[in-house]
Amino acid sequence: MKNIGESFSGLSGKKSSDFGHGEAKYITYLNILNNPIIDTKLTDKIEIDNKQHLVKKGDIFFTISSETPQEVGLSSVLDTNLNECYLNSFSFGYRLKEISMFDNLFNSYNFRSPNFRRKMYILAQGISRYNISKKAVLNETICFPKISEQKQIGKLIKLMNSLLSLQHRKMELENQTSKAIYNYLFDKNKPFYFKDNKTKKVFLKELGTTYSGLSGKNKTDFGHGKAKYITYLNVNKNTIANHNLLDLIEIDKKQNEVLNGDILFTISSETPEEVGLASLWPYDDTNIYLNSFCFGFRPNSKINNLWLAYELRSLKIRKNMYKLAQGISRYNLSKKSVLNLQVDVPSDAEQNFDSKFVKLINIQTKFLSNERNELLLLKKFLLQNLFI
């Protein structure tokens, strides 16, 4: 790098009272940290000082100090000219000698590519705080294809980022729509979809029975065996439990087995918001147990299990769960108090309609998430193989 460019320092000899006012600007540390290309709207004010280095279009800035090695040597490219603008003191600038031979968009990705970042991790020195020297960075090598190829690669990665941004926006809109529909179906009075709609209040204890999670176990019992157990986080995060997130344990006939259609509740957490979260187990596996920080609820034939799982995660039920959570540093919930909760149960036809509708929404959300993951994998592949 020292053969094709030269470094310059950021602001020096300044004190805190010099910042926040003046006719000049400076590029902040966070602007470099968070943006491959400098966001010119996020500059701060400072007085004009002819002793400082002015930045110009095409300059590349590097962070030189951070609390983590992952944030040291992160780069950002200035893609426009700024009048009377300097660089913060926790970064240094790098100016290419033959600027016409380099594409700014390509540089913004090249200096943040996985290959170049690995070099920066190695150069980061420190324990509680990490630093990097300009000299060490300038002694590193970096590859550049001809300018025409740089431009094509830059456009390709920019296109990938645009697709990811659009996908992220689609997911945000989908989540907003899903939340609105979910709240409408389970939290508010909705129109009568069916003529036989006869909602009635029922205590949860009238709809099924409870059982406990694993008991009498120690740390050595977990992580091996021919049986499986459903973890606390699985119940916490999923309205429908994830079959791929089970842990191993030995078969123990003394424990309660989880059956298809059971609904699982969290009963202990550090926050009241995580107590009483419900999750449906819709699988037919044998030798499946439940972790000790949850309890199971086995609905009877009078209720649609899928509908009940969604209903128990609705806002109105969650508010009641908060009230039942007892504790200070850790919150707990009793099975008895949960069984005394009242649930508004509609007709069978409406239960079926609501549960199928929400299930379709969740399938769409998962589809969008899978699309985004595929785009991320493609971008990762491009970054690893286009920037050597």
Key terms:
388 residues, alpha+beta, four-stranded antiparallel beta sheet, 22 strands, 23% strand, elongated
Spatial order of strands in the largest sheet: 1-8-4-6
Described by strand count, sense and barrel closure, the largest sheet is: 4 strands, antiparallel
The quaternary organization reads as single chain
Query: What is the mean pLDDT?
Result: 89
Q: Tally the helices: what do you get? A: 10
User: Would you identify the regions where 5 or more consecutive residues have pLDDT less than 50?
Assistant: 192-196
Radius of gyration: 29 Å
Question: What separation lies between the terminal Cα atoms?
Answer: 15 Å
Brief synopsis:
The chain has 388 residues and is an alpha+beta fold.
Structure in words:
- The chain is of the alpha+beta class.
- The protein contains ten helices and 22 strands.
- The strands form seven sheets. It has a four-stranded antiparallel β-sheet with strand order 1-8-4-6. It has a four-stranded antiparallel β-sheet with strand order 12-19-15-17. The chain has a three-stranded mixed β-sheet with strand order 3-2-7.
- Strand 20 and strand 21 (331-332) form a beta hairpin.
- Helix 2 (104-110) packs across helix 5 (147-187), helix 5 (147-187) packs antiparallel against helix 10 and helix 7 crosses helix 10.
- The longest helix has 41 residues, at 147-187.
- It starts with a strand and ends with a helix.
SSE topology:
Blueprint: E1 5-9, E2 19-27, H1 29-34, E3 43-46, E4 60-63, E5 65-66, E6 75-77, E7 85-87, E8 91-96, H2 104-110, H3 114-123, E9 125-126, E10 130-131, H4 134-138, H5 147-187, E11 200-203, E12 208-212, E13 222-230, H6 232-237, E14 246-249, E15 262-266, E16 268-269, E17 278-281, E18 288-290, E19 294-299, H7 305-311, H8 315-324, E20 326-327, E21 331-332, H9 335-339, E22 342-345, H10 348-386
Parallel strand pairs: 2-7, 13-18
Antiparallel strand pairs: 1-8, 2-3, 4-6, 4-8, 5-10, 9-10, 11-22, 12-19, 13-14, 15-17, 15-19, 16-21, 20-21
